[in-house]
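Subject: Interface between my chains keeps coming out wrong

I've been trying for a while to get a sensible model of this assembly. When I model each chain on its own everything looks fine, but I need the whole thing in one frame so I can look at the contacts. Pasting all components below, labels as-is. Any help appreciated, I'm running out of ideas.
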Amino acid sequence: MRMVFFPGAAHRKSFRRTPNDGARRATGDAVLTTGVPEAIFQPFANLNRAHGFMSAIQKIKGFADMFGEDSRAFTRMESVARDIFTRYGFGEVRIPVLERTELFAKGIGEDTDVVGKEMYTFTDRGDRSLTLRPEATAGVLRACIEAGAVEPGKPSRLFAFGPMFRYERPQKGRMRQFHQIDAELLGSPEPQADVEVILMLRDYLEELGIGDLSFELNSLGCRECRPHYRAALTAYFESLDEEKLCEDCRRRMKTNPLRVLDCKVPGCKAMVEKAPAIADHLCAGCRDHFSAVLSLVSRAGLAYTLNPRLVRGLDYYQRTTFEVTSGAIGAQTAVAGGGRYDGLVQQLGGPDAPGVGFACGMERLALLMEKQEAPRPDFFLAVTDTREKSGAVDAAILLGHKLRLRGLSGECDYEPGSMKSRLRRAGKLNVKKCYIIGPEEFDAGKVTVKDMEEGGQLSLDIAAFD
Ligand SMILES: [Zn+2]
Ligand SMILES: [Zn+2]
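Reply #2:
Try treating it as a single job with all components included. I did that and got this:
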């Protein structure tokens, strides 16, 4: 049943891009549609009904199961992340998926869509308001602060991956559980820290084979200069016909006018075109910081474009922000994003330590990666000794165990069958060698090893594998 109902190709079609994807942090937002996985489960439902079984329990709407190719893609993303990030001195941190709601309200910003509309929040039996993490940064920072692992001037480098949750209407075509890879460098305000994080991200995406990458960079200023820019922006929008802005943006005008810059509504986009650019309002410190970042990424051979409209969805970003898109499957698809968030650690009750990081959307990366083939098994242990209780199956199991101790992979028969059916099975499993124990072999303590690639075969003593 394993592969029959979960063909990789059909499941991959369930990954789908949606028009608003670029606007969201780290783009890890789920892009799986809910319709297809449900459809995949139908054969079981029908089978159960036909046989009068109790109806099978189905997964929650907005959540997906991953099998075969999709599962292998996620495994690869994780193992390549471990490899590349370790080279940059990053260590893996494992944190809970459930946190106190106030962490995200404080850490992400009450006025953001994430906190305002999309959090997966509930009250537990102890009457505490808890939230399934909608992103990783706040939790990683909370953990580091709690462990005393954030010290100004002593960088901590951490990465994490796992599921994130946003309670959105499923008809929008986004999953409520999606996955992100997240990296955070805490404790250094230096532009070199930003550059290392960006280079690490590029190395990672290239190692995964994600093609046609483009990097967009911007600086959002700091606590000193951003208020001036914000005022200039507000004055600009007020000088125009505010009615032309969408409803969300009219609200953003009051809460965070920078968010108007990345609104995807055509009317708003037109209004934004002549808006003042943040580059013209940066203080000397921010200008120097940003030019140091740009100069060093260029020297590292990374081509980038400046995007003054790149504000990212969350309130906590300061100075450097970046977003990476790939054109590998047609239109530019956002795959990762991040930036500097000096002040956030303090806002969460920690020391005044700066930070910079990024997140990648794993569903999105999976779409852009090459197909992950299943590894080819080394052997199939076929039992063709059909005599009752001959002990040949036991012999096969013991031989299989010895082969695995030698590092080989494969599976054993639990039930004997005809040579024809066993070889068909070996072919289906696409194994390199088929080990056959028939009645003659069993009586002589031997096994026939058939090379499934070359076609030759030889007879070996089972005892030789001890
Ligand atoms: Zn500044
Ligand atoms: Zn708008």
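Reply #3:
Confirming on my end. The first strand starts at residue 91 and ends at 92.
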